[in-house]
């Protein structure tokens, strides 16, 4: 099923205010955010969750966003986070590698991408080896909890797009040639 993206006039007053703030900050309201506004409360709740403080750096959060969106085959989020990944300093080649499940260019990020991918594919049951490799790379238990929250955040948006199939309003990310299973 394909949903229409609600306009400012079609959403609750509290969401209209959020739309105005997004327009000021980003220059537009991303279609996925607008779709959250079908609910009177979901957009505000989601943005609060998504923008919460984290022990993960912005670049690390993008690693998680990219790999989870790839595992969940969310073209919208792959596209949005390809743009955000570039803004955070990743090259096109690095972004494709991250989406594929590795980061040969950075050992610490490689442990992160492998953990995020395995959390997603195993439905929250990564192996002890993957968790140990994450800790050995320099991360701690607080980082682990923040990775789990980041995975959950991305699953929410991946599922929202998967169900609504709203149009992608970012440059569409390239398909991967081959993705590790």
Please provide a written account of the structure:
This protein is mostly helical. Helix content is 62%, strand content 0%. It is built from nine helices and no strands. Helix 4 runs antiparallel to helix 5, helix 4 runs parallel beside helix 7 (107-121) and helix 7 packs antiparallel against helix 8 (128-136). The radius of gyration is 16 Å and the shape is globular. The two termini are 27 Å apart. The relative contact order is 0.17.
Question: Which key terms come to mind for this protein?
Answer:
2 domains; single chain; globular; AhpD-like; 9 helices; mainly alpha
Sheet/helix structural class: mainly alpha
Q: Strand fraction band?
A: under 5%
The level of helicity is: 55-70%
| CATH topological fold name of the largest domain | AhpD-like
Over the alpha carbons, how many angstroms does the gyration radius reach?
Answer: 16 Å
**How many DSSP-defined strands?**
0
Order of helices and strands: HHHHHHHHH
Separation, N- and C-terminal Cα atoms: 27 Å
C-alpha geometry: globular
Q: Helix count?
A: 9
Total number of domains:
2
Largest sheet geometry: none
The CATH H-level homologous superfamily of the largest domain: AhpD-like
Low-confidence sequence ranges: none
Kindly provide the name of the CATH class of the largest domain: Mainly Alpha
Shape-level CATH architecture of the largest domain? Up-down Bundle
Give the rounded overall mean pLDDT: 96
